[in-house]
Amino acid sequence: MARSVEFDEQLAISRAMDVFWKKGYNGTTMRDLTEAMGISSSSLYNTIGDKHQLFLKSIKYYTESRMAAARKQLQPIKSPLKAIEKFILSSVYAITNEPNSCLAIKTTFEVATTDEQVQKIIKADNEFTYNLLINLVEKAIEAKEIKVSQDAEMLTDYIINHFSGWHESFIIHRDKTRIKKMAAFLIRQINQ
């Protein structure tokens, strides 16, 4: 009689996510994953699937966790402009304090260009960020908190595109002050 597989799947996926985050998809072996997850390869295959299926679950877990954290963090802020500023500053904190950069950005360049399933998850994450910010930008324009632009779509794209550049800059220079200065400049531009 086969033994039932018992482990905390969410915890195992979280541990696998950390390995993918550190080593990337291509640099991660099944042995790396099973050791980090504390399970055998047969348990992994029987419950979650292969490396690719685990990667999809890990990326989904990562992006959904970020979405939930953003909603929770911004929900109590009454001013749309202050919520935008908080989102920008939280992004700066993540960029400059996550030891392995952003898993979604790393995945975009390593895997998403050729993997439609990964691309779908990354696109949903990007759409969440865009929708969250455009909603705040539109409310801030309506409340006359933002005067720099009446084009909410353009301003939202403008804000979002800074994040990728900051990630790249921090990976290359490891200069927190530089990123913080760029964020402060962006916030000043929005506040004009």
Automatic annotation (TrEMBL):
InterPro entries for this protein: Homeodomain-like_sf, HTH_TetR, Tet_transcr_reg_TetR-rel_C_sf, TetR_C
Keywords, sorted A to Z: DNA-binding, Transcription, Transcription regulation
DNA-binding region: 29-48
Superkingdom of origin organism: Bacteria
Domain (HTH tetR-type): residue spans on this chain: 6-66
Official protein name in the record: TetR/AcrR family transcriptional regulator
Organism: Olivibacter oleidegradans
